Amino acid sequence: MSEPRIYTVSELSGGIKYLLETNFRELWVEGEISGLKVSSLGHTYFDLKDATSNISGVMFRGFATTLKFDLANGLLVRVRGNITTYDRQSKYQLMAREIQPAGIGPLQLAFEQLKKKLAAEGLFDPSRKRPIPALPQKIAVVTSPTGAAIRDILSILKRRYANMHIIIAPVKVQGAGSKEEIAEAIEDLNAGFPDIDVMLVGRGGGSMEDLWAFNEEIVARAIAGSKIPVISCVGHETDFTIADFVADLRAATPSAAAELVVKSKVELAANIAGLEKRLLQSLRIYYENLQGKFRRLASSRMLANPLALLERPVRRLDDAVEGMLHASGERLRRAGEKLNLQSEKLKALSPLFPLKKGYAVVKDAAGKAVKSAASLAPGDRLSLQFAEGRAEAEVTGGGAAADKPRAPGKGAGKGGGPQQETLW
Predict the structure, then answer these.
(1) Lowest mean pLDDT across 24-38, 230-244, 356-370
(2) Other CB atoms closer than 10 Å to residue 258's CB: what's the count?
(3) CA–CA gap between residue 238 and residue 216 (Å, rounded)
(4) What is the DSSP code (8-state) at residue 387?
(5) pLDDT digits (tens, 9 = 90+) for 223-234
(6) 356-391: buried (b, 16+ CB within 10 Å) or exposed (e) per residue?
């Protein structure tokens, strides 16, 4: 009996690896993604499972960058690759080279994912879209310089408005590098030509793959960031791209965009003629209304007798002056009466007022008023103040006799008679 072959661990692991890689190569596996994670090096690790089983999978960075959509847990996919093992852990896994969504194409899935993402950011919000100028003077076109789109656009613009200023930014519109060129052209036009009124971005028709550059996020964000209003014009009427949702206006085709952006000279002339007709009608109606007003005024009583216009104002002025004078006179009269009354009161309070009734003010030689006869002695000289004038006297007796002073007669005293002195 021969001895059994003894394998080393490495030999057994290598044999298993060989069998798996030989018998399970270039196969498609359908399942639901779970445990998704991306390493710092860009490699994607995941589990692929169905109702009862689970298999580990990996897609290295070189293949992962070709995906048109984002992988997510719970996504049902079909994976193309081969089975291999990881020697150090005795673990087999699916080495993925291609992943497609099950039931929906990868491009459509990527389209829906990006559309949902940008919509959540508000890039499709109508409130951020700007109006397209009615009469642009300078237009920029971002498209292929050799495609049918640019020929159609130029033909229509020339026919509708021949002297339009047009700037063409030539770019690739499909294939590798196209999305970068389109985004860069939009940014360069904004930076270098801020006086551009409107920008057309698009291309002619094609398959979804042909139009895909206009579904790329870099292009969508360049359009959203443009300060120049953008009209997207990609493909045919039934084609919709992410650029259509982000742009300020969507045109079904490049030709439609050219017709939207520039009104034809015939249309402009017709609009001007219509406006001129409406203006003349308005002026005629206005003139007729003025004529009617003039006739009514010309036949009025006031214009027939212009002085009649002054009758009422003059009458009102006279009444006002008369009222003012009457009021002033009445106020002056009352003021005079009040003044006279106060004057009489002041006179009554004057110490000289009793003198007018025959009384006199008696003063001694010192000029002090004499209030009692008992304070006098014979021979005292007195001064008598009357309402009009002043006289001197000498006391000849005392006691009661002092109450009756006698003025010197004619020739008495040195003055030869009473002295007269005006009091005021």
Answers:
(1) 356-370
(2) 27
(3) 19
(4) S
(5) 999 999 999 999
(6) eeeebbbbeeeeeebeebeebeeebebbbbbeeebb
